[in-house]
Amino acid sequence: MSTVVLIVRWVVSGMLTVYMLRRYMLLVASHLPPRRTPRTSHRSLVILVAGRNEQWGLPTLLAAMERLRYPARLVQVVLVSDGSDDGTADLMAGWQTSPFATEVVSLPQSVGKGAALAAGLARARASELVVVFDADCEPRDDVLEVLCGAFEDPLVGAATGYPRPDNANATLVSRYAALERWTHHLVVLAGEDRLSLDPSIIGAAFAIRRQALSDAGGFPQGRLSEDTVLSMAVVAAGWKLRWLRDAVVRENVVDHLGPFYTQRTRWGRGMLESAPGVRSLAHLFVMAGYLDRVVVVVALALVPFGVLSVWWPIAYFFAPALCAATALHRAGARPAWRFAWAAAVMLAADLFVSVRSMVGQVLGTPVEWGRRS
């Protein structure tokens, strides 16, 4: 066997081994008792919501914010319409039942989520914390109390919540997307938080100290995955990150192949784009994103040529299968077999999008943000 073939074998098998060991480590850590976090409601905060063409999901968010439990005198809401050409700006301007002081910013043309958040922050009053919600989510009434509790630790710069799928059983695609989300949050982020490995900020719902945001250089602009880039910048500035399972926001996952493809392409490319900000081994894995899927495709392609044993990809798939089974149990998903079937059917699509994302990033083809991003 040639030297080149041996190198390929060792590289691929080595990468599969590293990914497997990481999954098992986080799975074990996620079974440990969670870190105790108090609930507080004494810090001033600004809630930022930036949306583009969100007229269908926005009313749910606005209604949910009216139910938030937090002293109204400590809260300001800033709503930003990022060049919307539907009824988003009108809905924001017409929100008359807010219990909080509210500011509306309507941008004439789309500038991207990061820049839209920055525009909203520029119109906000002084506060200790900044809270960001996606425009189509439904935060639970206690989410602010839970998120703010993390900042009792003076080293914590940002804390992210748990966007719980509301439409998991809608379609085959939504079952797979929900399973992926449950696994990422209830196993991966839970394990990282337990080991103090700075779990990445999730853009759907997070809180950040104003000082930490300033230290990180503000909201990243012109990026495909601004939450990943911000996470790395906050850690690089010397702050810690937290993930809080009880900080729940309900949100619909993608339920058709078109949005699934667009979302995964953007996520995959955004993670690769964050490479310059990597400062730790944990965030190296975040940047690698869906690279393990690409490695699996390569491994499967090598099996017929005898370069790699079929047991390598089989052994690899056992680790994510065990993590997924654990996530299904914790999420209380029923019936579990439907989600397992969705994973089996959607696996090829997931692998294809992962490879396509890497190719798109190399070629530099454009991707825009919008709903389901």
Would you mind describing this structure in some detail?
Helix content is 50%, strand content 15%. The protein contains 13 helices and eight strands. It has an eight-stranded mixed β-sheet with strand order 3-2-1-4-7-6-8-5, with helices on both faces. The protein is of the alpha/beta class. The longest helix is centred in the first third of the chain and has 28 residues, at 3-30.
Give the neighbour order of strands across the main sheet.
3-2-1-4-7-6-8-5
Spell out the helices and strands N to C.
HEHEHEHEEHEHEHHEHHHHH
Helix content: 40-55%
Major sheet summary line = 8 strands, mixed
Inertia-based shape: globular
Radius of gyration: 21 Å
Q: Spans of 5+ residues with little confidence (pLDDT < 50)?
A: 369-373
The average pLDDT score comes to: 91
**In angstroms, what separates the terminal alpha carbons?**
46 Å
How much of the polypeptide forms β-strand, as a percent range? 15-25%
